Structure formats: C-alpha cells, structure tokens
Amino acid sequence: EPLERLPIEVKRSGLVIGGGLAGMIAALDLAEQGFQAYLVEAGPQLGGHLRKIRFTLAGDDVQAYLQDLIGRVIANPLIEVHTSSEVREISGYLGNFRSRIVDRSRGNGEVGSIREFEVEHGVVIVATGAAEYKPSNYLYREHPGVVTQAEFEEQLASGAFPKRRGKSVVMIQCVGSRDDERNYCSRVCCSEAVKNALRIKDADPDASVYILYRDVRTYGVREAYFEEARRRGVMFVRYPEGQAPVVSRAEDGVSEERLVVEVTDTLLDERLAIPADLVALSAGIVPNERNKEIAQMLKVPLDDNGFFLEAHMKLRPVDFATEGVFLAGLAHSPKTIDETIAQAHAAVARACTVLASGTITTEGIKSEVIKTRCTGCGLCVEACQYKALEIDPKDNVAKVNAALCKGCGLCAATCRCGAITLKGFTEEEILAEVNALC
Q1: 111 vs 106: CA distance, rounded Å
Q2: Secondary structure string (H, E, C) spanning 40-54
Q3: Vertex 288 angle, CA 81 and 342, to 5°
Q4: Rounded-to-integer distance, Cα 95 and Cα 354, Å
C-alpha cells in the first residue's frame, strides 16, 4: 500500500507575540520579505524592556534607535499592530494557524469596547520578552536611596545624578539571580553595572563607586569596559557566596538619607562598612508572567526557570518542537540587545523557509482509524501529544488530522480495541515480517 504525501497550502503571514525589540525586528523582517505580519503587544506601547534602557556600553542612544524602529514598524503597510491586546487561543498546525485576539485598546482617553477577532497565519514567532526583578530586600522601596540599575540609569540619563560632587555609590550584583529561587545568571547585570559606573565617572571623576560582586561576567568585547572601569578607579569588591551584603540606614546623626553597606571582602578577609549616598541593585531578569499560558496554547515547553525551551540549543536554536513556531529575545533567556536582534533575524529566517514554500507536504506515515472497531472512548485523544486526534460527534469515533499527525504510533499502542493502525506498520505488515524471520 503506497504512503501518500498530502500537499497543504501555507497561509503566507505570521503572528508575532510581543512588541518588544525582538518582536518588532521579527515583524519588520517578515514584512520586508513580503509577508503579512500581525504584531500583538499586551502593553499600551511598543518597545517592551528596551524602553528602560537609555544607552549602551559604547554610548549609543538606545531611545533614538527605539523611536526609529517603532516608526518603521508603524509605517510599514504589511505590519498590523495591535497594542493592549492578547492572544487568547491558537489552533491549527504548520502553515495553517488560526488565532483569536482580544483587543483592549483605549482611544481619546475613553475606555474602548473590548474587541475580539481572528487572524489566519502560517507561522508563530514568540517574543514575549521578560521583566526586571523587583527586589524585596536591601531596603528597596523602603529608602529613596536604594534603586535598581534600570531606575538609576534613568537618573543618569535625565541629569538627576549627581546633585552634588563626590558622591558614594555602591552597586550590588546578583540581586534576584543565582540564588535558591532563581539559580540562573541574568548575564547582562555585570555589563549594566560597569556601564553605569563609567557614566558616574564621566559626570563626577571624584565620585566613589563600589561594585560588590560574586563573579564578574563581562564576556566578549565587554571585558575592555571592565578594564576601563578599573583604570578609572571603580572599586570591585568580591563577597563570598551565601554572605550577601547588608544595607542599613546610617546612624552617624549627620544625614538620615545616608546608607551603610556591610560586606565581607574575600581578598582582605575583612568585614567592610561602606558609606553610600545611593545603592544600585543589579536586579536579574525574570520570565514573562504569561509564558505558561502561551506555552499551553502552543503546546511548547518551558524550562525550569519559566523561559521558553527551544527544540535543541545547537541544532535548532530558534525552533520549537512544535513545527511552525519559533522563538526570539528575552522570552528564550536573558540576553543583550545585539544578541536579541540576531536571534530575531534568525527566527524570521527559519519562518520564511515555511512561508516562502507556498505549500508543504505531510509525511506518509500517519495513523488511521478503523471506524468499525472504534468505541469512541477517547484514550487516543488523551495520549496524542500533537492534538492530532479528536472524537467526531457525528458517529462517535476517533478522527485523525493528517496535518498534525507525526506518525509516532502512541495512539495505536494505546487503543484497547485495535481500532488505530499506523500506515507502513499495519498488523499485516508486522506479522508478515515476523513470519519471514521465523
């Protein structure tokens, strides 16, 4: 019996979930390749986490780049932007997805009516981004002099710092990262600290800057900026694992706003008390809260930390195990701006291999239901990892979606009635092989 490959027409458009840097780059790339892009952002504005970054280590103006990128996205006629919107349901398969989107956008200061609509698309690119961890220790939100690096960067960019010369700034690394709750490294924190420390030295060469760290990870060309910070007098103090610094209010009677940071220096093997006018916490990156919900809709996995997990980190770095779904940006893991842009380009390159083909062909090895044996118990539906089976309500028997079926045979092994067989591995074929061997 021949195994037929069925042709399936591909919807020549893509859905991009997330309107941050990775999402906008992906949507723009799809449009520039001539494909329709639906860009869905949960927030009221495009930009995501990039809105909190004001400059790079090299001194580039991030906000100018962001505004230019947003302008290009909005101006492109092939990009349909939906802000204040969420993807509520995704069904279908490679080349033929259908998504239900809920739009809660507001207009003219008035609450607009909630609008639901559906879009059809051939691929999905997940770029839901991530967020900065909000600390619950080190007097954060209890003292005005304790801020995160992102908040401190805003002060530096706006000119609010320094208000007087000779200030003392202490930066504490690995806040919300590499601990019992989140054991991963957020990768960008050390570079952010070095970047802001150099900005302080530019504004006030006499300022005292301390960076309290466990390990410095300014990898690649960023090592040069670490060396520059040391040369310009930024003091790096290494503290032991399990002995985090302690931030307290100063009790010298001079100023209630003054802080003291106590830390154990591993080099000197002494406990230091560093006076500080400001404490900047290098807060880690945490996954998006909706990742679990989106993962369930797309039938894709998350890692132990809540970030999306690719099919293979080396062989398929931007692909999911679910065909037609791709990944980019902070939704995958903490990464820098240039790494995010590179991954977004890669995800679109992989997606375009599907969209450009026009049609795709399914594999010939598929499950097949023998209706006269099926009792409609539904065990095969529960067993199928690809959601390729459903119970037909008309005659109460199982039905296979050939486009979704991967020919794994799990349903055939599960069926108690022997109602499901796998093309190419039917009972007759297997028994013939056994007879030939014996």
Answers
A1: 5
A2: ECCCCCCCHHHHHCC
A3: 65
A4: 7
Task: Kindly indicate the confidence band of residue 109, based on its pLDDT and cuts at 50, 70 and 90.
Answer: very low
* Beta bridge partner(s), residue 89: 100
- The rounded Cα 395 to chain-centroid distance in angstroms is 43
Q: Are 362 and 6 in contact (CB under 8 A)?
A: yes
Lowest mean pLDDT among 102-116, 185-199, 247-261, 323-337: 102-116
Asked if residue 27 lies in contact with residue 109, where contact means CB atoms within 8 angstroms, the answer is no
CB 17 within 8 A of CB 127: yes
pLDDT in tens, 256-311: 678 999 999 999 999 999 999 999 999 999 999 999 999 999 989 999 999 999 99
List pLDDT tens digits, range 41-51: 999 999 999 99
For the whole prediction, is pTM greater than 0.85?
Answer: yes
List the beta bridge partners of residue 351. Answer: none
Q: Classify strands 367-369 and 420-422 as parallel, antiparallel or unpaired.
A: antiparallel
- The residue length of the chain stands at 438
